[in-house]
TrEMBL record, chains A, B:
<keyword id="KW-0418">Kinase</keyword>
<comment type="pathway">
    <text>Carbohydrate degradation; glycolysis; D-glyceraldehyde 3-phosphate and glycerone phosphate from D-glucose: step 3/4.</text>
</comment>
<dbReference type="InterPro" id="IPR050929">
    <property type="entry name" value="PFKA"/>
</dbReference>
<keyword id="KW-0808">Transferase</keyword>
<feature type="binding site">
    <location>
        <position position="108"/>
    </location>
    <ligand>
        <name>Mg(2+)</name>
    </ligand>
</feature>
<feature type="binding site">
    <location>
        <begin position="136"/>
        <end position="138"/>
    </location>
    <ligand>
        <name>substrate</name>
    </ligand>
</feature>
<feature type="site" description="Important for catalytic activity; stabilizes the transition state when the phosphoryl donor is PPi">
    <location>
        <position position="135"/>
    </location>
</feature>
<dbReference type="InterPro" id="IPR000023">
    <property type="entry name" value="Phosphofructokinase_dom"/>
</dbReference>
<protein>
    <recommendedName>
        <fullName>Pyrophosphate--fructose 6-phosphate 1-phosphotransferase</fullName>
        <ecNumber>2.7.1.90</ecNumber>
    </recommendedName>
</protein>
<dbReference type="InterPro" id="IPR035966">
    <property type="entry name" value="PKF_sf"/>
</dbReference>
<keyword id="KW-0963">Cytoplasm</keyword>
<comment type="similarity">
    <text>Belongs to the phosphofructokinase type A (PFKA) family. PPi-dependent PFK group II subfamily. Clade 'B2' sub-subfamily.</text>
</comment>
<feature type="domain" description="Phosphofructokinase">
    <location>
        <begin position="5"/>
        <end position="322"/>
    </location>
</feature>
<feature type="binding site">
    <location>
        <begin position="295"/>
        <end position="298"/>
    </location>
    <ligand>
        <name>substrate</name>
    </ligand>
</feature>
<feature type="binding site">
    <location>
        <position position="13"/>
    </location>
    <ligand>
        <name>diphosphate</name>
    </ligand>
</feature>
<feature type="site" description="Important for catalytic activity and substrate specificity; stabilizes the transition state when the phosphoryl donor is PPi; prevents ATP from binding by mimicking the alpha-phosphate group of ATP">
    <location>
        <position position="109"/>
    </location>
</feature>
<keyword id="KW-0324">Glycolysis</keyword>
Length: 405, 405
């Protein structure tokens, strides 16, 4: 029996639990018979073509467990999206090092990379087992009930809106919080889980699954402000008009585009500022504040769902088990069982790669400005244990003596 | 013995622990002999002139404890800064309701309100005991080692930068995080406590205690980026040039000003975006991202220092004890004892009111771009127990086979 050599890498945006998956792969791979080496590539596929490997066979289990509990990609990540020539470079390096099993932890772009690598390996008759391990805070991988990383980011968004709502109740006005998610509104929708009492915010939620109309937005904000004396709004960075043009693109003409041709939506506060200006100017409301949650929602140290941690660990373990005890390449997927547990499946790479899931219609209310109870029921168990709660004083009004104002 | 009637209110920006102080006042006041009523004013001094009171004598201890653990001002807050006429309105209401003790929880503006109310009450021979209870995430009250609310916000900032540093290490580039603090850099400086390893960010910290020079900033960012391949920067919203003009004011001419004549610095992502544009345009660095921490740093539900909670509770209790067992009005102050405990003092209102503490020189390094170990030692115990920690893989490089790139 020839010895197996494992290569694992992390791609795309970091999450709070992606290192759980990494450590799941490493520890499970080290338990397999006949595995001589477990390598990690630094900064994803870029580390492969650069032969930038670290030997994870020489890392202690103790430190691996500590790294598993640390957010962001411990091996480093990349936004590179390999083309055919890039993939040939990958093969050259994999062959030179005798790699037999390749695990890539990432989102839909990364799954597409695994698909290309898998297909090219087959075409070149190079014996390589390729497994994609799901990871994305956007929750936009098809075939998955949800994706590792989403739950912890969702928990951050829910806790952020729960706090922002209390702040806004103390100093009333309009508050706009802009949340990550280019095409899928799952993370923005998590804001709804920060709401406890009927009059709590977020009062309005705007998702990329629905067209955004500035006039309707202003009408809704005005009505909410008149009703409650304040208004808390969750907005996806990916909101767009009926033509599909991002609202942010209407603000600035000269936007940065990444290697995938996508406009840069994160890392700028422009969308929140634009919406606040519109509310101030057209509704005449004085106190209007906007926050862009930015990188905190995926990187904040110390906000994590224990359910997310467990599942992220398991998809890494399952990937190794599929690789060593199964017979084909694929993408590990999470499926929901009961309320609440999960099971795993290995989907064909072509079923997942490069596709984008968006929020299902039954998760969005008819007006398109809130989620449904079906969504609340879907998300609640993912947030994990120990969610902080908010309490308020009960009304015990004192009778006025002077009878003024 | 005539019965005492208590009035407590909350002013200024909410914090994670201001309700601990409120509940400290209420529970301690309800224990005093001869107290008939404990009222809370809704939305600070505005609630007083509007006679908008709630009867906290009719709230359960159980619910008060739950409210104490909830961030943001449970009574509501206000940005009103009363003048003499406003204070006369306050007296009219206090007299009508027979209030004997007034407790106001807030920052330096609120302490000045208490001072005016105290002086006017004395001038009018109206028997009123007035106690100011400290609260501000800015940590800018004179006479205090630190202020309740600061430690929890500092913990948020430290955890945020610890996570942002990991994210930036995974996907290298320049990251700018803008932190609250108009005149005092204490909260921005807390970013330094997110750093663990020598090459971790934040690599540069810019405080309002030092003049900001764009050319020096760009020079420092360039040098850091060349050294580490990345750069994480903490910037106070209050940075200003040598003339004292806010850097943000250089960006936009038409800025909102509040009732105190201050320019609105929070609730907009403009400063981070401006600095990112400068780095991109003048240093030619491609991946440059900016976050403005905004309201999350003071309101996020679930990020709190247990030390901060305890002290915020105690300043409320102490305020009542000073009021009932002391002989003068004043402002409760926190003083550090040993490493680490605290004691309390009642300072004359005029010593605290309307004054602003800024970071002491020995807390800032010579270059003005980092804190000193003295500051780290100062802040560390305030962050409380259970601070999350970050771990990394140890370097075990694999020898290159192809010997390229």
């Amino acid at each position: 029996m020839s010895l197996a050599k494992i290569l694992v890498a992390q791609g795309g945006g970091p999450t709070a639990v992606i290192n759980q998956s990494l450590v799941g792969v490493v520890l499970e791979a080290r338990r397999q018979a006949g595995v001589s080496k477990v390598y990690g590539a630094r900064h994803g596929v870029r580390g492969i073509v650069n032969e930038d490997f670290v030997d994870l066979t020489q890392e202690t289990s103790h430190n691996l467990e500590l790294v598993a509990g640390t957010p962001a990609s411990a091996l480093g990540s990349t936004r590179d999206k390999p083309d055919a020539a890039y993939c040939r470079e990958i093969f050259t390096v994999l062959q030179a090092h005798g790699i037999t099993h390749f695990f890539y932890i990432g989102g839909n772009d990364s799954s597409d990379t695994v698909r290309i690598v898998s297909e090219e390996a087959a075409a070149a008759s190079y014996p390589l087992r390729c497994i994609h391990i799901p990871k994305t805070i956007d929750n936009d991988l098809v075939g998955n009930d949800h994706t590792p990383g989403y739950a912890s980011a969702a928990r951050f968004v829910a806790q952020a809106f729960a706090g922002a709502n209390l702040d806004n109740a103390a100093l009333p006005g309009v508050y706009v919080g802009v949340v990550m998610g280019r095409h899928a509104g799952f993370l923005t929708a998590a804001a709804a889980l920060g709401k406890k009492f009927d009059d709590d915010g977020p009062h309005l939620i705007y998702l990329p699954e629905r067209d955004f109309h500035l006039d309707e937005f202003l009408r809704d904000v005005k009505a909410t402000h008149e009703r409650y004396g304040r208004c808390v709004i969750a907005v996806s960075e990916g909101i767009h008009d009926a033509s599909g043009a991002p609202m942010l693109a209407k603000l600035a003409g000269d936007l940065e585009r990444d290697a995938h041709g996508n406009v840069q939506l994160s890392g700028t506060g422009a969308l929140a500022d634009l919406l606040c200006e519109e509310v101030k100017a057209r509704l005449g409301i004085k106190r209007v504040r906007g926050d862009t949650f930015g990188y905190l929602q995926r990187s904040f140290l110390g906000c994590v769902s224990d359910v997310d941690q467990r599942e992220a660990r398991e998809v890494g373990e399952k990937a190794v088990q599929y690789a060593f005890h199964g017979s084909r390449d694929g993408s590990v997927a999470i499926q929901r069982v009961g309320y609440y547990s999960v099971d795993y499946a290995l989907l064909p790479l072509a079923d997942v790669a490069g596709k984008t899931r968006t929020m299902e219609d039954h998760f969005i209310n008819e007006a398109g400005t809130d989620v449904t109870d079906a969504f609340r029921l879907y998300l609640r168990p993912l947030l994990g244990s120990g969610m902080p709660d908010a309490f308020r004083l009960r009304p015990n009004p004192v009778e006025k003596v002077l009878g003024r104002g």
